[in-house]
Amino acid sequence: MRGAALEHLRPGPVARARKSPYLRESMGESTGPSRRVAVDAIILAFKHSKLAGITDSLRKMVDASFGDMVTDGTLDLDILWELLEEQDAFDADAAKGPLCAIKSWEERLGAPVSLPQALSNLSDTEVALIATKMRISDSDVRRVFESDEERAERMSNMLAAQEEAAERTSGGKHLELAWYERKEAAMGAGAVLLVSLAVVGITLFGGRAGNWEDLDPNEFAEDIPVESAQQLGKQVGAELVDASWLDGPDDARRAAMKTALVNLQSRNVEVFYIRDSSGAIRATAQWYGNPPDVKIVFR
Fold this sequence. Notes:
- By secondary structure, the chain is an alpha+beta fold.
- It has two domains: 2-144, no CATH class; 148-298, no CATH class.
- Helix content is 41%, strand content 23%.
- The chain has twelve helices and eleven strands.
- It has helices at 2-8, 13-19, 23-26, 35-47, 55-69, 77-85, 92-104, 106-109, 124-132, 138-144, 148-168, 250-263, and strands spanning 70-71, 74-76, 113-114, 175-188, 191-204, 213-215, 226-232, 235-240, 271-275, 281-288, 293-298.
- It has a six-stranded mixed beta sheet, sandwiched between helices. A three-stranded mixed beta sheet has the order 1-2-3. A two-stranded antiparallel sheet has the order 4-5.
- Strand 4 and strand 5 (191-204) form a beta hairpin.
- Helix 4 packs across helix 7 (92-104).
- It is elongated and about 65 Å long.
- The relative contact order is 0.11.
């Protein structure tokens, strides 16, 4: 099983396209629960458990194996259990809480959830009780299960706020959007509540928060004159080096933005944006709606 899981982490171009977050849905295939929502829900549950330390590697493995986890519209947690067993830090007792929490979210997921065989002896009452003891805050759960429309609106508002802040900044400081994982810890009833939220911050260029990864824009946006592309989480930003591109044919610009975002699917990117030399956001492309489509905005 370990070999198979690791193989998923190094897919070739065809496999990456097949396993990308939105392609199966956009092709009209029956995929059961939303991939984005299900993966985020799994990670949220485990971040509130004693297995929180494996969530980074778990996200990659779950995302790569998600197609195998959904059978006839049902989210099969047996596959997840197998992935967990391959982790050195795996603890069967510690896994019960998050798995029961995921099971309790069936209605929110919009799909049945099948518990692992190892937990098949639990009654519905026991599952509900164990899930309740997880004490995951309602606000965190709402954020994970927000609709695509709500998510798109929130992200658009965040980008608009960044642009507003950039316009108010004096001294010629170069600003850019930064997304990072914010963790809040609160002690209560002997439980530690770890909250992982996708939030937006404004950081000075050269003093960015989070772990940014430099990308080669020629690999995904060869039709747009950009450079210095970076990824943080599920967003990628790049600097426009030829502002005249913004005055080009609208259809061509939109096609180029959409192509760039589609090319970034294998990296699980949901937002691609372009900033000008002053740091202001000039164009964004993001996944929106169900079935998913690309929403493009020029500013």
